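Memo to structure team: turn this sequence into structure tokens by end of day. - J.P.
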Amino acid sequence: MKSLFFFLLAFAGLASTGLHAQEAIALPSLTEALADEPMASTLSAALEAADFTTTLDAGSELILLAPTDDAFDALPEDVMTALMKSENVDVLRSILANHVVDGDSAVAADKLAMGESAAQKQIETGNGVIYLIDKVLIPEGFDPADLE
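Reply from structure team:
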């Protein structure tokens, strides 16, 4: 009987240790993961400029189609500079919102296909998944000439 007691006590200790180890390995939020991703510094800056980080971190089961720095560099000259100006924040928000999907992978796949873009890397986060993509998904009707 004593050996059964000690076995159960040891098992409970191991189970407890395992549980604590799982708690310590919490995944970062979408914006925290982006901040740590070297290929997404332009997107991180755009999210901050548009005050979009709170929106992303408040959501759950989101899919973020995250253009890489190279994708932003491929935009026409001076577009990103103009988008980062405070007078163009609404346009920037609409472009960023075009990259967020509420957990429906079929919708995300459709957005990628329509934008002729491909996922280069997947990052699991505490409130969704990030797919680094090779193009900026421009909403229909966007005209860089309309930027101030």
